[in-house]
């Protein structure tokens, strides 16, 4: 199969490229990424010369470019990771979220339809369901939970999900959607909570905790997410949504305390700061459908996964220090000499 992976230079996308090249060496992967601030080709330096992989720089929302890429490459499958993904940035600048997440998705859907792609997969998020109350531990997001978004980010993701489902119903495009909970693991950009707290604690800087720190996120190891998407591509039913999560609910403070303990840093680094606007209280996925229909199960417990992740950030200081210094953005120029 020839697979277009969009956003493959980002956190989950680069883990997916690594996962697929190792698990399915018979497939060919094309990684299309605009290399925004969140895209980092250093994360893929080890596979840059692989025979069945190549990188293309470009914008998913540029319809002409997308059309010509599809006409040239003849993709069998599209997996769309490309997005603006940081909730805080969506609060200060919503426009780029609508452009990339909604219009970019539409450009990919149109090209997938025109050039006969046999599977279009949309990587979505549990944030499209809104949030759950902290005191109702019995409630979980199922695929039937109504969409009820809080931030411009989640609204743009919900908009793109609805477009994807409309292309199935109206045009018969063979689509699937996955909605995953918070990911953690290697190569996550240090604006997101876990690598942000790790890199700041490592440097003895204060840790900004929004509100009370009691908000709950449902953490899943990025490799478990990649395995689930691979399974959906191969066995998922067209037109269906699959929730992905591993029942690993933690308050933000629980996670931050664990990071401080692993790094042997004092709790006095914690600073409670003004809450995020519209801050979702709790996310919790019910993964029964993907477990039942596709036999997916997560391999990582949070306890082993988070320790391995912290060890990875300890061992790969160059990777995140290049981001903090801005050096990572020179890699593309050095690598491609343009
Ligand atoms: P990320 O921000 O780390 O990476 C996004 C990538 O998309 C970057 O490489 C960026 O350069 C690229 N990109 C942005 N705009 C583009 C455009 N117009 N054209 C081409 N490429 C563009 O994001 P991530 O955390 O890896 O998330 C990947 C996907 O998974 C997103 O769709 C996100 O909504 C979804 N998701 C993320 C999580 C999570 O916890 N991180 C959980 C569930 C779902
Ligand atoms: O649930 C899936 C979503 O998870 C993805 O769709 C998003 O792309 C991804 O960014 C993530 O969204 P969150 O908003 O949950 O992740 P973030 O890392 O930004 O924040 C996690 C929690 O930590 C949240 O409750 C806010 C809190 N936080 C975050 C930052 C950056 C802080 O307390 N302080 C901070 O500085």
Give an account of the 3D structure.
Strands 3-2-1-4-5-6-11 form a seven-stranded parallel sheet, with helices on both faces. A two-stranded parallel sheet has the order 7-10. The chain is an alpha/beta fold. It starts with a strand and ends with a helix. It is built from twelve helices and 13 strands. Helix 4 runs parallel beside helix 5 (152-171) and helix 6 runs parallel beside helix 8 (252-263). Bound molecules: nicotinamide-adenine-dinucleotide and 2'deoxy-thymidine-5'-diphospho-alpha-D-glucose. Nicotinamide-adenine-dinucleotide is lined by residues 6-7, 9-13, 33-36, 38-39, 59-61, 81-85, 100, 104, 123, 125, 157, 180, 182-183, 189.
* Individual helix count: 12
State the total count of DSSP E strands.
13
Ligands bound, unique: nicotinamide-adenine-dinucleotide, 2'deoxy-thymidine-5'-diphospho-alpha-D-glucose
Q: What is the N-to-C succession of helices and strands?
A: EHEEHEHHEHEEHEEEHEEHEHHHH
Q: What can be said about the biggest beta sheet? A: 7 strands, parallel
Class by alpha and beta content = alpha/beta
Assess the beta-strand content as a share of residues. 15-25%
Radius of gyration (Å): 19 Å
**Head-to-tail CA distance between termini:** 30 Å
Query: How do the strands line up in the largest sheet?
Result: 3-2-1-4-5-6-11
Q: Kindly state the percentage of residues in helix.
A: 40-55%
Average predicted confidence as pLDDT: 97
Low-pLDDT regions: none
The gross shape turns out to be globular
What labels would you give this structure?
binds nicotinamide-adenine-dinucleotide; binds 2'deoxy-thymidine-5'-diphospho-alpha-D-glucose; about 40% helix; two-stranded parallel ribbon; about 350 residues; 13 strands; alpha/beta; seven-stranded parallel beta sheet
